[in-house]
Specification:
Helix content: under 10%
Strand content: 35-45%
Low-confidence stretches: none
Largest sheet: 8 strands, mixed
Mean pLDDT: 96
Number of strands: 54
Number of helices: 4
Length: 672
């Protein structure tokens, strides 16, 4: 009798844990001759007789076990289970969504879409996309690859400039290189319902629709406005309103204005020397022969002011651009200074050149040429789609300005920020012309204009202790306008003059003239009809005539190309005052020289005053010109009442009081 059970059958054709997307054929092996085989596809829950290889094609999860009964009726053990899965269809898409909350998304925002599948899927490469929108403006969100498998796939798109979807829609889904875990590929994909009416993409930065002032127009306002094509909000940045290109430099600065520039922390020592030469003590460098400030900006006086009903010299300290420099700052200016008075200018520092544009460059370092406004400050206000900028300081007239609003200063509701915004305009009205008189006093270092036929033909130098060089009696004048391209017209007025009258003046006596100052009516009556073409002379060439001259200038600017015409400037005024001293037969002996001050017995308190009282520095004692028994001294630098002292071998007894643009005549002055 056979009581030995057969061995468990083997299972072939499938592999444990495998996933199949096509039918599989299961074969039982190791069946004894005549034995009956049985198999189960559900792990032994139900059994089927095995008569031939079994084909499994239906999708599902299976666990195969098998057994056999031999002819004696003995039953084998159950074979080890072999589990596998069969799935021949790609899983359905159950849901399409976007994980971004409702809202409007701008440039740089990441849109994240999610596809939910009925079963796990995975990516085998790139290529799957979700199409946002349709037509030529459609964009594709790329799959976030997942090679291991999950029941969801994510797709991302970064909003680019120009994208506009209102609302966001999905028109197509491409599942290239997406497989399920059985290896099935998707067929035709139908886009599930996607309804997000409040989900929007706005990839268009805010654009300027209007600005004020408009480009290449003239404005007298202290406000600048920019209107965008949509509501905007403040972000961050600095708005600049700056003078354009090779802007014209200031000809005259107040003491406070110059100090703010000169002591700016942005400047180096070399920068400061570009503005004003200084000595070893840091004081303005004085000319080694004339004793006057050298430059380029000279600490002197300039201009007129109203006193009562007349105009008198403004004696406040100013920093005035040296005569050779133009407001255009477009030419090199070279100084040759015999600093040690050895007869040459070959020593270090005696030749100095200020290059064209150098002063402008230094001023730009300090920010002189611009105003800067923080967009987050109270000077910037936003109302819906319009930005209004209130300038901290009014724009000076007759200059071209460039407004620069940096990229990122403002944003729209989607977070898109503006690109850089820049345009130019002009401040209304031509700048008032600035008149400079190249003031000097007869004496060492003076270069006095020689005039013939109304034109300057050369210059007459005056040496040290020089009593033989005849004063020319002329001074030169230049006019600048800080509005580029302006045409200047000018006129002059000989307001009052007096020729020395010695009649009736006795020994140790004197006489002073009382030339009248100009009134407002006098100045407004000057006919500014001569077109300015370059500096010109004023004077009469006489030794004994004191004169008060006044110059008036006005400037115009016509339209040129894209530049607008500007309204005519205000009139600019300046005075040129020829002051005379004549001593006849003065007591004492030796060359006659003059000293003095605007303070009797004290140091001058007016910048640029040419004399000092009892100062051993020979630069401040001016030698007079001698002809016969008469001595003459002419100055164009006196702008106040002043006190005269003279020296021969000794000092004169007492002071004489005189005033600008007048003569002082002295006869047989006594000396100590």
């Amino acid at each position: 009798m056979d009581t030995t059970p057969p061995t468990a059958p083997g299972v072939s054709g499938v592999t444990g844990g495998a996933k199949y997307n096509t039918p599989v054929t299961i074969t039982l092996t190791g069946l004894e001759s005549g034995a009956e085989g049985s198999y189960s596809l559900n792990g032994g829950v139900s059994w089927q007789p095995y008569t031939a290889p079994v084909v499994v094609g239906a999708s599902g999860a299976y666990t195969v076990v098998a057994t056999q009964r031999d002819q004696a009726g003995n039953i084998s053990p159950i074979s080890d289970p072999v589990s596998f899965e069969v799935n021949t269809a790609f899983p359905a898409i159950e849901e399409l969504s976007c994980e971004n909350p409702d809202g409007t998304y701008g440039i740089g925002s990441v849109m994240r879409f999610k596809l939910v599948f009925a079963n796990k899927v995975r990516t085998i490469g790139s290529g799957a996309t979700v199409t946002i929108g349709s037509g030529g403006s459609a964009k594709t969100a790329a799959v976030v690859q997942n090679p291991t498998g999950a029941s969801v796939l994510y797709f991302e798109y970064t909003v680019s400039a120009g994208d506009t979807f209102n609302p966001v829609t999905v028109s197509a889904i491409d599942l290239t290189n997406v497989r399920d875990l059985y290896g099935n590929s998707p067929g035709t994909v139908t886009v599930p319902t996607f309804n997000r009416p409040s989900l929007k993409i706005d990839g268009v930065p805010p654009a300027v629709s209007n600005r004020s002032p408009e480009p290449n127009t003239a404005s007298s306002s202290s406000q600048i406005s920019v209107t965008f094509n949509e509501p905007i909000f403040v972000e961050s940045g600095l708005i600049e309103v700056s003078r354009t290109g090779n802007w014209y430099i200031p000809v005259v600065l107040t003491e406070a204005e110059f100090a703010a520039i000169y002591y700016s922390s942005a400047l180096t020592a070399a920068d400061r020397q570009t503005l004003m030469f200084t000595d070893e003590n840091g004081s303005p460098l004085l000319h080694p022969q004339t004793g006057q400030p050298v430059g380029p900006y000279r600490k002197i006086t300039h201009g007129l002011k109203l006193s009562g009903s007349t105009y008198v010299p403004d004696t406040a300290t100013k920093y005035v651009l040296d005569f050779p420099f133009s407001a255009a700052d477009n030419e090199d200016v070279t100084y040759t200074l015999d600093l040690n008075n050895d007869g040459d200018t070959n020593d270090p520092g005696e030749t100095r050149t200020i290059a064209a544009g150098a002063i402008r460059t230094v001023l730009e370092k300090t920010g002189y040429h611009k105003q800067t406004i923080d967009v987050a400050s109270s000077a910037v206000s936003v109302s819906n789609d319009t930005v209004t900028i209130t300038l901290p300081k009014p724009l000076v007239r007759g200059r071209q300005w460039t407004v620069t609003i940096p990229a990122g200063a403002f944003r729209d509701g989607a977070g898109n920020t503006n690109g850089e915004i820049s345009w130019s305009f002009w401040s209304a009205q031509v700048a008032t012309p600035v008149i400079r008189v190249d003031r000097y006093s007869h004496g060492w270092g003076a270069q006095e204009p020689i005039v013939s036929g109304g034109s300057i033909t050369g210059y007459r130098p005056v040496g040290n202790a020089d009593i033989t060089t005849v004063p020319t009696g002329y001074v030169r004048v230049r006019i600048d306008c800080e509005t580029p391209g302006a045409t200047i017209q000018y006129g002059t007025l000989t307001m009052s003059s007096a020729t020395v009258d010695p009649t009736g003046v006795g020994s140790n006596g004197y006489r002073v003239s009382t030339n009248a100052d100009a009134t407002a009516t006098d100045l407004s009556g000057i006919d500014s009809a001569t077109t300015y073409a370059g500096f010109f002379p004023l004077g009469d060439g006489a030794l004994d005539t004191a004169i008060k001259y006044y110059i008036a200038a006005v400037a115009t600017k016509e339209a040129n190309g894209s530049d607008p015409a500007l309204t005519v400037s205000d009139r600019g005024y300046e005075g040129a005052f020829k002051s005379i001293i004549m001593y006849r037969q003065p007591g004492s002996t030796g060359p006659l020289r003059f000293q003095g001050s605007n303070i009797q017995g004290g140091m001058p308190t007016i910048s640029g005053f040419p004399l000092r009282d009892a100062d051993p520095d020979i630069r401040f004692s001016k030698y007079a010109y001698k002809t016969g028994t008469d001595w003459y001294w002419i100055s164009w630098e006196i702008v106040s009442t002043w006190y005269n002292q003279s020296v021969r071998s000794n000092w004169q007894q007492g002071y004489y009081e005189n005033s600008y643009g007048n003569y002082l005549y002295s006869y047989k002055k006594t000396y100590w």
